[in-house]
Amino acid sequence: MTADADTGRRIPGAPSMWFFVVGDLIIFGFYFVAYMYYRGQDHVLFLQSQARLNLDIGAVNTVLLITSSLFVALGTSAARVGKRADAIRLFGVGLAFGAAFPLLKVFEYVPEILGGVTPGTNLFFMYYFVMTGLHLCHVLLGLVIIGFVIRNLRATATPDIALVETGATYWHMVDLVWLVLFALLYLMR
What we know:
This protein is mainly α. It has a single domain (50-187), classed as Four Helix Bundle (Hemerythrin (Met), subunit A) (Up-down Bundle), CATH 1.20.120. It contains six helices and two strands. Strands 1-2 form a two-stranded antiparallel sheet.
């Protein structure tokens, strides 16, 4: 944690997590820029391919991740003020909402793949599967991290708040990346 000596304000979580988060955002940023470039090169192909996506599942996944992040933020606040039981419960709810995301991705991916749509189908689907697949890996890692946060909250009367904040920081990054992916892949016309 980095603190400003004059104001007492600090950046929540471990600096190493912030390094990781910024690095991930840069990597995803490169994907976003490349996607936009190629979309501009073949707008019709991207629109036709985008029309195959299941907007309903994408929207539900967005609500799930936003809701999960809300509970993680509330859990972090509860942990900061010493309300361990509330923090455990709130992180548990956040974990449950977050765990629904990969389940819905399976329902989205399987019909496409069984229908012959793969990353090799065209450039849109290459970006779609690579970016959402990479994001899915981040979601799964985030769920593990939230599990460690819950374990930390349960294990001791004085939980490691830096660990709680670090886990929350990662989870919010996962949410932010999905919001951009949802806008780019599902909504942008």
